[in-house]
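Trying the structure run again after the queue cleared.
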Amino acid sequence: MDLSFSRFEADGPAVALPPDLAVLMVGVAARQAASPTAMVQARLPRPDRNDPFTPAHGAFNLLVWELIEMRADRRKA
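Done. Tokens:
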């Protein structure tokens, strides 16, 4: 069984989700947002930039952040 993610194809056809699946996904997202864990994490203070454990660039994964920024810049152009 292949459990890997398929590659994103920018020129691939857009496929609409079946309404039942879309409603299910919205319900799951709403329950997750209202979970006690999410509520507590929302109240946590933002990381202090002076904290020695906070990355200087502020991103959890710098390479992924740079890739996202690069794609965003391409879309703007």
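Residues 64 and 70 are 10 Å apart (CA to CA). Worth checking whether this holds up in the mutant runs.
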